[in-house]
Amino acid sequence: MNMDLNEIIELTWIPILAFVMSTAAGIHMLLIKKRPPYLRVKGDNRVMQNEEQYAKVGGILLLLFGLGAAGMVVLLFFNAYAALAEIVVVFLIFSVKWRDMNRKYGPLGG
What we know:
Elements: H1 5-32, H2 51-76, H3 80-105
């Protein structure tokens, strides 16, 4: 399978973008130890139950999601169906864990 750079980018740009965005947001949350403004609804100023733990766990979850997106990039070169199945499983696990984290450490009254 001989692919040039344009074909590789065309095949992988969405999971690469997901990797970059989730990894950057995860690192940002781990470094600033609070929920960043781009993860909030405009005007949402509710008090967090434990903002530092929210940022720590959320940052780790976002980094793991980025790792899943990177795994999708690799799988795309072998089997598109396997890549799709992998990212669906990663997204479902991420969603459940994010919901649990939000309930435990997230905004009060929400």
